Amino acid sequence: MNVHTTTNYLFAPLAIPTLPIVGSDALFPVHRIYCVGRNFADHAIEMGHDPNREPPFFFQKNPDTLVLSGQDFPYPSQTSDVHHEIELVVALNKGGTNIPLESAMDHVFGYGVGLDMTRRDLQGEAKKLGRPWETGKAFEASAPCTPLVPASKIGHPTAGAIWIKVNGELRQSGDLNQMIWKVPEMISYLSGLFTLQAGDLIFAGTPAGVGAVVRGDEMHGAVEGVGEIRTRVA
């Protein structure tokens, strides 16, 4: 049941998660966070999978797992193996179902740089048991992200360096042109599985080199032409 008046809430609802927009006082309200798995061939190989083009698969993070770049990433509980995954973030300002490939980019508001932080040990256990990945992927603060840059300012990046350093040491390095599934393909395919909405974010996959971080580590990543992300493991 949808409740439309605040006086009917049993308790005060939580604030809507938002991201800042570069060059604007407006905020981007986040509806859902979708993440595409194994979208770089070299990362698929390092995770022990076939790098050939197979249908994309997706998992979700909760919107309130977002942490703004510059804020600390708190080391999560019940794990001893937390990995960084640097990703391009695609922000939608229009939704729909069964979106045609040729019009998919009309739904893109802009882009950001995100980290798909992962409790790799818990994800590995879930894989072995054939269970969902939420414990490995959707924990608190697991989605650090930069402010969004409108596509009207930077266009739609299809190539450019994507990298992350930990304590100044390069860990991951690739190029957006290495993505197996391109942004319009992801949007079109995903809209056949879910009804996409304005406010949805898509974390578009990570190159090889994922690895563990520990408390005190400084993460600094970037997507060329989009922005840079910085966060400390607290």
TrEMBL record:
| Residues annotated as domain Fumarylacetoacetase-like C-terminal | 33-233
Q: Keywords for this entry?
A: Hydrolase, Metal-binding
Protein name per its UniProtKB record: Fumarylacetoacetate hydrolase family protein
Q: Which InterPro entries match?
A: Fumarylacetoacetase-like_C (IPR011234), Fumarylacetoacetase_C_sf (IPR036663)
Highest taxon of source: Bacteria
UniProt KW Hydrolase keyword: yes
Q: Name one Pfam family in it.
A: FAA_hydrolase
Organism, as annotated: Mesorhizobium zhangyense
PANTHER family per record:
ACYLPYRUVASE, FLUTATHIONE S-TRANSFERASE
